[in-house]
Amino acid sequence: MNQTSKHIAVIGGGIMGVTLAYRLSQQGLSVTLYERGDNLGGLAGYMPYDGIRIDRFYHTILSSDMTMQQLIEESGVKDKLHFTATKQGFYDNGQIHSFNTPLDFMTFPPLNIFQRFRLALQVIYAQFENDWRKIDNIPVEEWLVKVSGRGVYNKVWKPLLRAKFDTAFTDVPATYIWSRLKRMMGTRQGVTSKEMMCYLENSYYTLIEALAAKCEEYGVTIKLNTVIEEIVIEDGQATGVQTAEGFQSYDAVISTLQSPILGALLPDAPRPFHDQLMRQEYLGVLCPVMILKESLIPYYVLNITDESIPFTAIVETTNLVDTKYVKGHHLVYLPKYLAPDNEMARWSDEKVKSEWLVHLKRMFPDFDESNMVDFIVQRARYVEPIRPIGTLDDIPKIKTPVDRLYMCNTVMIYPSLGNGEAATSFSYEITEQVVKDAAHWQTPSKSAVTVYPGG
Ligand SMILES: Cc1cc2nc3c(=O)[nH]c(=O)nc-3n(C[C@H](O)[C@H](O)[C@H](O)COP(=O)(O)OP(=O)(O)OC[C@H]3O[C@@H](n4cnc5c(N)ncnc54)[C@H](O)[C@@H]3O)c2cc1C
Asked: Which residues line ligand 1 (CB under 6 A)?
């Protein structure tokens, strides 16, 4: 078998799956990409609105995301990438405070001078820590309180942790916040400390669309609206996939699905592997986007420390994206990450809207609903993996215990955070592994025949 006669199924058309299909086909492998939705993109996908594309969930690329920028260049959309210096703020005790310049920092009202010093020390401390395994057994709260002190923890870190983990952060290792501090400092440009973020015209999907076009150039078959119902295993080897159309054989199968979703497709996998996938927990997200006539805040992100407000940040992406690319609309996202047992996941869109607006009006008494053109609720069940302390050994491996079944998802990119940069870099790693292995696949896979129902 030469490389092109080796046929691989990639399951999942999010940024990870699309990058993987692109890279594998570039290396000469024959690829079919399966996506259950009617469009590619997954969490990084778009919703059509008023004749334009709007990110389902706010998405930015950081100036330090070099793999992403390389992909943007390779796929021919570099001219659509724009850099902007963004600002952030904190909403605390009924007041909004800027948190951008050294002066903002030195006069940040929620903290006293001693606490400000300890907060700065924490950020510096994280930059000098290079061995994440050393801190992976330390609970995030303990690590932060040691350097920042309890006051700073309660005022700054705890609200930020709550924003990302809901109530599920007591078991989270220090590595999580360390990764985040490293990533955020990577976007700071010299002494000006201006945060540089990037966006693509016409949404993040512009990159996915360009990569999909490259994939098609390299001969990838993209199957949208196609749900994988089962990954078929025969004699310990993945031999193909089952869809509504029937069975299709492949030389190898690569899943980019979140662990429990993959587990459900593997009824015949070895029990310990199946159980390992099924016990991985994820946070979900509830994330309304308001389409406004006027801007709400001057920041890209306003972090909220007040725990009585159900959403944990306000993200006005049109303080990053030029409104001329979104027909003059102002886009404001109001996210809430949800622990697996949070009953808000079952709230109707109408209930979310009424609850969210009550609190928004509390924060902004002058907010006039006639400024709001739309309020669209987006949600996703499997978003952020929860990886408790002491479970490093439970992270699945790229090569699964099933021969010729590979997997990759955001659980596995630890200690990096689940984001486009980490997902695309990880796709390169998988490509290398699969290309290396494919060279040794001397025999056709065990089921070489495609069988369709009735045929
Ligand atoms: C609110 C929010 C904000 C974010 N902001 C940023 C940001 O600013 N910058 C950044 O870099 N990252 C951001 N992220 C993270 C980023 O979206 C994810 O890391 C990334 O999209 C994960 O991609 P993925 O391909 O691994 O997974 P997914 O996007 O989940 O893709 C998996 C795909 O598999 C498909 N699928 C599932 N089951 C099947 C099946 N049985 N058969 C076929 N297909 C199936 C799904 O439909 C989906 O398209 C954000 C995420 C959220 C939720």
From this structure: 11-17, 34-37, 42-44, 57-60, 227-228, 256-257, 261, 285, 287, 335, 380, 383, 409-410, 418-421, 423
